[in-house]
Every structure is written in structure tokens, then in C-alpha cells.
Design a protein that fits this description.
The chain is mainly alpha-helical. The protein is built from 5 helices and 2 strands, in the order αααααββ.
């Protein structure tokens, strides 16, 4: 019977980035909430209901751009932290990391492109009477 050897002098390397990666969804949520709260606090009269004003609502929608940038950062950090293990990874795992990076980069590009196009061609307005968002083009 084959007996497994115990790990001798094994030290697990845990840096700040490893700890961050363990709680990346929580940190992203906190950053996005802070982003939205700062926009609401510095625009309008500071009331929570000021988010329904059209200019404040339009600025709060920039949270999606921040979320896509954070996702790209998370994917890049994931690749960097697993870089040393690339020799023992199967091909499909490497392909998955590559597709995650490409997908996140494309998402950032698309969100930024839509934001620039939105600024040039129309505006997002909150329609309080119907309870929805309407997009007005000029």
C-alpha cells in the first residue's frame, strides 16, 4: 500500500492580494456603493430621493462603468496570482483565463463606448409619473 508523505516545512504564501481575492465580491460591492453614495451626496440636496432627479440618475449610471473596470481588475489579479501554476494547468483552464480577460476587457470597452455615445446622442431621464426610465434622443 502506498503511503502518502506529509508536507514538511510547507509555508503557504498569503499576501494582501490573496486576501483581497478571497473577498473580491464584497470589496467590489463596497466600492460601488461608495461610488453611488458619493454621487448622491455631492449632487442635488443630499437627500436619498435626489437619485430620482435626471442629472443625478444619469451620473449614478456610471456605476456600471466602475463595475466593469473592477471586474477587469479582478480577472487580471486572478491571472497574476495563478501565473506560477501555469505549467501544471490543463489547456482548458488556460483557455478559460484567457477568455475571462478578453471578456472583461470587451465589457469595459463596450460600457465606455456606450457612455460616450449616450453623452453625444441623448440623455437618460427619470420619469417619475410612469415609474420608469426613458431615453430621449435629440
Amino acid at each position: 500500500m502506498h503511503r502518502r508523505a506529509a508536507k514538511v516545512n510547507f509555508v503557504e504564501i498569503r499576501s494582501y492580494w490573496h486576501v483581497f481575492r478571497s473577498f473580491d465580491r464584497m470589496w467590489s460591492f463596497f466600492i460601488l456603493c461608495l461610488h453611488a453614495m458619493i454621487i448622491v451626496a455631492w449632487n442635488g440636496d443630499g437627500n436619498l430621493t435626489s437619485i430620482f432627479e435626471s442629472d443625478v440618475f444619469k451620473k449614478v449610471l456610471s456605476v456600471f462603468i466602475t463595475a466593469s473596470i473592477l471586474k477587469l481588475g479582478q480577472v487580471v489579479l486572478d491571472v497574476v496570482l495563478n501565473w506560477k501554476a501555469r505549467q501544471c494547468m490543463p489547456f482548458y483552464v488556460k483557455l478559460r483565463y484567457l477568455l475571462k480577460v478578453v471578456s472583461a476587457a470587451a465589457w469595459v470597452r463596450e460600457k465606455k463606448h456606450n457612455d460616450q455615445r449616450q453623452k453625444g446622442s441623448g440623455e437618460v431621464a427619470w420619469d417619475g409619473s410612469s415609474g420608469g426610465v426613458k431615453v430621449s434622443s435629440f
